[in-house]
Write a structure and sequence with these properties.
Elements: E1 2-6, H1 11-22, E2 26-31, H2 39-47, E3 55-59, H3 65-75, E4 79-82, H4 91-94, H5 96-116, E5 121-127, H6 151-170, E6 174-179, E7 182-183, H7 192-202, E8 205-208, E9 215-216, E10 219-220, H8 221-232, E11 256-261, E12 267-268, H9 269-280, E13 285-288, H10 304-310, H11 318-343
Parallel strand pairs: 1-2, 1-4, 2-3, 4-5, 5-6, 6-11, 7-10, 8-13
Antiparallel strand pairs: 9-12
Length: about 350
């Protein structure tokens, strides 16, 4: 297949591209390479892809309607994995327009490209953030998601509604994946576990919000990517059990599906930090703080629907996943320091 992967220089995007290339698919990866976080990290991810047979990178902003339409028209993609987005909950408090530009306008452009090109299946990134203020655990796709607590979450719910409308109007098979706290090597510097690692190694205090009582369904990158690939290979179909008299929020009578993709074993933040301390061989200096605006106290994925649809990927334990991240992080920072020394006059 020829597959378009948006956000190819991103954390999940790089791994998805690698998996598709390894099995022989042709991959076109696009990314705007914006400076929301370190561009050098994005370029380093791309360097792992460029030169591989079947891969082509195009620097492109999905909010550029004309450029994206031209790409779809010229490439004739079989399937699309849409991972490009303005990420982050807290950043949406400072720069809300970036979310409207990328997550709303950009997503419309992707949907239009898929419609005009008769793409066989669109798989797109949603987020566990859509569950917002919900208190019922675990989070299930059938739950209403009408109370977002951040603009980021609101844009992700909007994506689900927009995709459903295109499935209804144009019979576009589309599947949304609600990711739960993805972590691992080549991850994002704006994520808490990355910041914790940097500060622990420097001997600086780490901010522990909600006094460490947060619960997070941490999910290792390999498990996430396995789920993405399995879902991509099974295009969405209408749910024959959908009842419009009692509509299920996570189902549809059009070819649109929604799935949680997480570890289904929430971990207390203090336990995660303890695992990180053990892997680093250093204790963290903790500064306990109240909950931040836009955050939620817990996430917990009910993944039964994903299991029924494509089976569940193997679960990587927190201990194994954190150890792999720490090993990678130390090596990456050592390479970064070596490059800086060589560049110094």
């Amino acid at each position: 297949m020829k597959v378009l992967v948006t956000g190819a220089a991103g954390f999940i995007g790089m791994y998805v591209c690698q998996r598709l290339l390894a099995r022989g698919d042709e991959v076109v990866g696009i990314d705007s390479l914006n400076d929301y976080y370190d561009v050098a990290l994005k370029q380093a991810r791309l360097a792992r892809l460029e030169g591989q047979p079947g891969f082509r990178f195009v620097r492109l902003d999905i909010a550029d309607s004309a450029a994206l339409a031209d790409l779809f028209a010229s490439q004739h993609f079989s399937r699309v994995v849409h991972l490009a987005a303005q990420a982050g909950v807290r950043y949406s408090l400072q720069n809300p327009r970036a979310y409207a530009q990328s997550n709303l306008l950009g997503f419309v452009n992707v949907l239009e490209g898929c419609r005009q090109s008769a793409v066989e299946h669109l798989v797109y990134a949603s987020s566990s953030s859509v569950y917002g203020g919900n208190a019922k655990m675990p989070f299930a796709e059938s739950d209403a998601v009408d109370h977002p607590v951040s603009l980021y979450a609101a844009t992700k719910k909007s994506n689900e509604l927009m995709a459903h409308s295109y499935s209804h109007l144009f019979a576009l098979p589309a599947t949304g994946l609600r990711f739960f706290t993805v972590y691992g090597p080549w991850g994002r510097p704006d994520m808490a576990y990355w910041g914790f690692t940097e500060k622990i190694l420097r001997g600086e205090a780490i901010d522990v919000f909600n006094h460490g009582q947060m619960l997070r369904d941490f999910t290792y990158i390999d498990d996430i990517v396995e789920g993405v690939i399995r879902v991509l290979d099974k295009p969405a179909t209408p749910d024959p059990a959908f009842d419009p008299q009692q509509p299920d929020a996570g189902s549809a009578r059009v070819p649109h599906r929604l799935f949680n993709i997480g570890n289904s074993e929430p971990v207390q933040l203090l336990h995660f930090i303890g695992t990180l301390e053990a892997a680093l061989g250093r204790a963290a200096v903790k500064r306990f703080l109240p909950m931040q605006d836009g955050d939620v106290p817990a996430t917990y994925a009910d993944t039964r629907r994903l299991a029924e649809w494509v089976g569940l990927p193997a679960k990587t334990s927190i201990e194994a996943g954190v150890a792999r991240f720490v090993d990678w992080f130390k090596a990456y920072k050592a390479d970064e320091s070596a490059c800086a020394r060589k560049a110094a006059p």
